[in-house]
Design brief:
By secondary structure, this protein is an alpha/beta fold. The radius of gyration is 22 Å and the shape is globular. Strands 11, 12, 13, 14, 15, 16, 19, 20, 21 and 22 form a 10-stranded mixed sheet that branches. Helices cover 25% and strands 22% of the residues. α7 packs parallel to α8 (294-305) and α8 (294-305) packs parallel to α9. The longest helix is centred in the middle third of the chain and has 19 residues, at 142-160. It has 11 helices and 22 strands. It has helices at 34-40, 42-57, 76-82, 96-99, 142-160, 163-166, 255-264, 294-305, 324-338, 405-408, 420-434, and strands at residues 8-13, 16-17, 61-66, 88-92, 108-111, 115-119, 123-124, 135-138, 167-172, 177-182, 219-220, 237-243, 253-254, 271-276, 309-315, 349-355, 367-368, 371-372, 388-390, 395-398, 412-417, 439-441. It folds into 2 domains: 8-157, Endonuclease, Chain A (2-Layer Sandwich), CATH 3.30.870.10; 229-441, 2-Layer Sandwich (Endonuclease, Chain A). Its EC number is 3.1.4.4. Keywords: Hydrolase. It comes from Dioscorea alata (Purple yam).
Length: 448
């Protein structure tokens, strides 16, 4: 995308580590030899970085919007690209100043307002070579790109505003928590909201919060799928969804609704497949812990009412959230409830597997304080990082982990479609992982 850009390139990034740092003792790359680094694939990251430099030198207008980054590089690479180039703007947005917690977690590229990438891959050489990622690349889709650009501009506008003048501490009735939100949030009573500096979002009278929309905006455009064994030029509905909801505009979906609608799109007796790095039925970063049953409830609903089969893949890696297993096991209890009475007409089932990329437990710097660690891969690698869901009829590809914070305090974007070819592709991707020797069944809770 950097190589093809002729006029404009907008990038949303969580952090930047396109260049390997094997000589920096603070880095997860530290201690590996030059041969090791090349064998791991670091050249791919260098190529992307150079393509960005080349685009900047061709006087492509580049806007970079990012979180403050991660240790030890933070925004070093993006700042270097912007340094001395008037055509490159580099902005850091701290969502924690607006929502009390949260980050820019979206991974989005928009080239010439017609080509877009949305997916799980970070601007990190390891994401491109040592982490399993899923994304979608659309070319020549100016109608979709234009709408995605509005979301980018909303983030950009936020970075120019003083959060102390535009935030409120509120009691969130929906989530039963005290938290900080922008002053135009629908979690604030409509009479107490400020006027939003962002494009208008649909109002739902007499409702606080962001309820399910019965008729969200859909694109009706043909999507070609070159290189695949089938294609169609019929105009199946497609959509974009966004988080957090205060950045919505028009009649676009919240990211949470897009996930829920995908789950509930499963046909009677059909199958819904879901994959995420993280899964947690609560908040992770908010000061006051929020319980979040949305996805689990939707899954149980289709198991009961539609006799659906639900398959869930969750990453198992060096940085697992400690109570993920308990939430997954509690979801498996839906199978017990489904068959708990002879009067239940319930034939659905949920199955959950951990996906363990080989070497996940041997990641990190090769040396610490001059001593060999026994690690064989750089830090924060060897993980199934994709975030997507696919039913019999609908595909959803996103940037958010399945944890409350990613939908209510964190910047995330998803693309979804009813295009049957893309649905089939995503099903194939999932089944390849599901049936692999690296997918390990999550066992149910033991009966007391």
């Amino acid at each position: 995308m950097a190589g093809n850009a002729s006029r404009k390139l907008d990038i949303v990034a969580q952090y930047w580590e396109l260049l390997a740092q094997p000589d920096d003792p603070r880095s997860g790359d530290f201690g590996y030899s030059a041969d090791d680094i090349e064998r791991f694939g670091a050249g791919v990251g260098r190529s992307v970085y150079r393509a960005l430099e080349d685009a900047a030198d061709r006087m492509v207008d580049i806007r970079i919007l990012q979180h403050s980054g991660v240790y030890p590089d933070y925004t070093k690479e993006s700042s270097a690209i912007a340094s001395g180039r008037s055509n490159v703007q580099n902005v850091t947005l701290e969502l924690g100043d607006w929502w009390g917690s949260g980050i820019v977690h979206a991974k989005v590229w928009i080239s010439d307002v017609k080509d877009i990438y949305i997916g799980s891959a970070n601007n990190d050489w390891k994401s491109l070579t040592q982490v399993k990622e899923v994304g979608i690349y659309l070319t020549g889709c100016s109608r979709i790109a234009n709408k995605l650009e509005i979301y980018f501009n909303n983030l950009w506008k936020l970075a120019t505003l003083d959060p102390t003048a535009f935030t409120r501490a509120v009691w969130d009735e929906q989530w039963q928590a005290n938290r900080t939100v922008p002053c135009w949030s629908h979690f604030i009573h409509y009479r107490q909201r400020c006027r939003s500096p962002l494009p208008h979002y649909v109002e739902v009278p007499h409702v606080t919060g962001y309820p399910i929309l019965s008729d969200p905006f859909m694109f009706h455009i043909p999507l070609e799928t070159p290189g695949y064994n089938s294609s169609t030029l019929l105009q199946y509905p497609s959509y974009l969804s966004f988080a957090p909801p205060e950045l919505l505009f028009g009649k676009f979906l919240t990211d949470e609704q897009a996930w829920l609608d995908t789950i509930k799109s499963v046909k009677l007796g059909g199958t819904i497949r879901m994959s995420s790095m993280d899964w947690l039925g609560q908040s992770q970063y908010l000061k006051q812990t929020v319980y979040w049953p949305s996805l689990s409830s939707a899954i149980s609903e289709v198991i009961f009412s539609k006799n659906a089969s639900v398959k869930i893949l969750v990453a198992y890696w060096a940085h697992n959230i400690e109570n993920t297993d308990q939430y997954l096991k509690s979801l498996l209890y839906s199978n017990v409830l489904c068959s708990s009475s002879k009067y239940n007409n319930c034939g659905g089932k949920v199955q959950i597997k951990y996906y363990k990329v080989p070497g996940y437990n041997k990641t990190g710097p090769a040396k610490i304080h001059g001593n060999l660690t026994g690690n064989v891969y750089p830090g924060y690698t060897r993980v199934n990082h994709g975030k997507y869901a696919v039913s019999d009829v609908r595909a959803h590809i996103g940037t958010s982990n399945l944890v409350w914070d990613y939908f209510y305090t964190t910047a995330g974007v998803s693309f979804g479609t009813y295009n049957p070819v893309i649905v089939s592709q995503l099903q194939d991707i999932f089944e390849a992982d599901w049936t692999s020797p690296y997918a390990v069944q999550v066992e149910p809770l033991q009966n007391s």
